[in-house]
Design goal:
12 helices; three-stranded mixed sheet; Alpha-Beta Plaits; globular; alpha/beta
């Protein structure tokens, strides 16, 4: 019996997506511009849907309110334009299609997509990081939107590499295997930094003295199943850096237009947009 090929996934995210798009529309560098996406008509407590990377570098938190921005920082306000952001998402998808077949692309949210690049690395004669950088440069050159990327040997690890390791990398690219996940992130806190662990779940785990992925992996599984039911299977797998869902599983789900009939973790496309044929 042939051994299944180890897969390589990318998870690419638009950095400060809405704010970066507004900078691109104005011909501004998002790493040099203080810009927020908000409706000033809602007053000083108006919620900022996004802030530019430069504003974030000054210590301003994303999803803040206008009143939270220090008075000594000058910034530009852009009114939200959701259709424009969806159009940019479609343009990025169209760019991916220049290099990757649609069956290997999953648009996870308006600013984030998963790509199965397993069969493309030998075609383009690049390793995973080189291919990620190539696609990121394409988006930057053609759409003027900065991105970050996670590379993983499964979908979950690609997402975690994006969320937790890419931010610390100079090239904005994170990379994880199951072994690297255990080496680098098993003792990471808080647990809510991990995809799929919300505050309520973390609080329930804390009652058992579990505060890390290592704690979940080493916990009594019967205790986890008693507390979380069938969801414990996903929790345990992710604590070990495992994920069995493939891109083909997601595509089969999308084709049926129904909820994926198991506890696996990656839902069908969440963005409504006109995609190029």
């Amino acid at each position: 019996m042939e051994t299944p090929k180890e897969r390589t996934y990318l998870c690419i995210d638009g950095k400060c997506f809405y704010a970066s798009i507004e900078c691109a529309e104005r011909g501004l560098n998002p790493f040099e511009t203080n810009l927020v996406v908000a409706d000033p008509a809602r007053g000083k407590n108006a919620l900022c849907l996004a802030i530019s990377p430069h504003l974030k570098s000054l210590g301003v938190h994303n999803r803040c309110r206008l009143s939270d921005i220090p008075g000594n920082i000058k910034y530009e306000i852009a009114l939200p334009r959701m259709q424009l952001y969806v159009d940019y998402c479609a343009d990025i998808y169209a760019l991916y299609l220049n290099y990757i077949a649609p069956e290997d692309i999953h648009v996870y949210s308006i600013d984030e997509a998963f790509l199965d690049i397993t069969n493309y690395l030998h075609i383009y004669k690049m390793n995973a990081k080189e291919f990620a950088k190539f696609l990121m440069n394409e988006i930057a050159d053609k759409l003027h939107v900065p991105t970050t990327a996670g590379i993983g040997t499964n979908l979950y690890l690609a997402k975690i590499a994006l969320d937790l390791t890419a931010k610390k990398a100079r090239d904005h690219i994170g990379y994880l295997t199951e072994e690297l996940f255990k080496e680098q992130l098993w003792d990471h806190q808080p647990l809510t930094d991990f995809w799929g662990i919300a505050k309520g779940k973390a609080q329930r785990l804390s009652r058992y003295g579990i505060f890390t992925m290592r704690g979940i992996a080493e916990a009594d599984q019967s205790l986890l199943y008693k507390s979380f039911g069938v969801d414990a299977e996903l929790l345990i797998d992710h604590a070990w850096g495992r994920e069995t869902c493939l891109m083909s599983d997601i595509k089969n789900t999308e084709a049926r237009a129904t909820r994926y009939p198991s506890r696996r973790s990656f839902p069908a496309t969440t963005v409504t947009m006109k995609l190029p044929l």
